[in-house]
UniProtKB/TrEMBL annotation:
Name of the featured protein: Quinolinate synthase
Alphabetized Gene3D superfamilies for the sequence: NadA-like (3.40.50.10800)
Species: Chitinophaga agri
Top-level taxon of the source organism: Bacteria
Gene name tied to this protein: nadA
Any GO CC annotation of this UniProt entry: cytosol
SUPFAM superfamilies per UniProt: NadA-like
Sites where the protein binds iminosuccinate: 45, 62, 133-135, 150, 219-221, 236
InterPro entries, per database record: NadA, NadA_sf, Quinolinate_synth_type2
Catalytic activity: iminosuccinate + dihydroxyacetone phosphate = quinolinate + phosphate + 2 H2O + H(+)
Keywords tagged on the record: 4Fe-4S, Cytoplasm, Iron, Iron-sulfur, Metal-binding, Pyridine nucleotide biosynthesis, Transferase
Record's cofactor remark: Binds 1 [4Fe-4S] cluster per subunit.
Amino acid sequence: MRELEIAKSELQKKGYLDLPVDVRLDLFAEIERLKKEKNAIVLAHYYQEPDIQDVADYIGDSLGLSQQAAKTDADIIVFAGVHFMAETAKILSPQKKVLLPDLKAGCSLADSAPPELFRKFKEKHPDHLVISYINCSAGIKALSDIICTSSNAEKIIESVPKDQPIIFAPDRNLGGYLAKKTGREMLLWNGACMVHEIFSLEKITKLKIRHPKAKVIAHPECEAAILDIADYIGSTTALLNFSKKDDAKEYIVVTETGILHQMQKENPSKTFIPAPPNNACACNDCPHMKLNTLEKLYLCMEFEQPEITMNEQLRIAAKKPIERMLEISAQYGL
Ligand code: SF4
């Protein structure tokens, strides 16, 4: 009991309940038990470690996860992802308890757009409509007109009248890619994702020489030079779907490595090679996503902490542009 009190008192500092977990426990069975007992649902992003993906009720990218969060009738949403994702679930389902295994699972891209700076930037362009990528804080969402994900961004931009100037935030790489794709000039916020920015063009080119039949498939958060050599560009879900439909046998995957687990499961006879970053590593993990572990997931379900809480005024303001996104996505059948 004393151990639990200490862990709770240190929760904000550490980000998670730092309690020992009995190594003999079957965590998969325990998590299933807790789901039933508490009417809880586990939503996991594709970039989570394989064990977490295997125990999740739903695995997806940001669009799918927010759609699931909006429609679930569970009492507790356990979000195995990063903070802005759990925050989005809370914005959409305020009456539900939303848990995140580690509160410190943040996002370098979301951090690259501090709301106060963005507000000043927006004030300089009062005639612009703001489209923000979902990878941003609730503060940025509240300053936006429409949210988008990499799955629906093109359609969202196309839904805006051609003569309406647009600010796109926070990812400059995704914004640049979309500007090219849609032919729309957009004012871009200068943010980026540390995982997708660090891929090495040189190492990928060498890999391609060693695997001449491999197709390069890349996420649009990557830099333009990487996208230029890609055979296919798409959101995490689009990359997974492409790997199922396409007839190549080998792929060089230029995004976070967590997605390789589903790709391999869905296509056991194909080979997926993680693209190397510009450092000594052979693959590229998101350090924020990988803060969540199966043990932390179990502990947060058992003790229902850490929980996402939010100022109500901010929540209501942030909800509007997300709902707009969900409406437009539904119109396009996304
Ligand atoms: S992969 Fe990039 S955008 Fe996604 S959570 Fe990690 S830092 Fe953020």
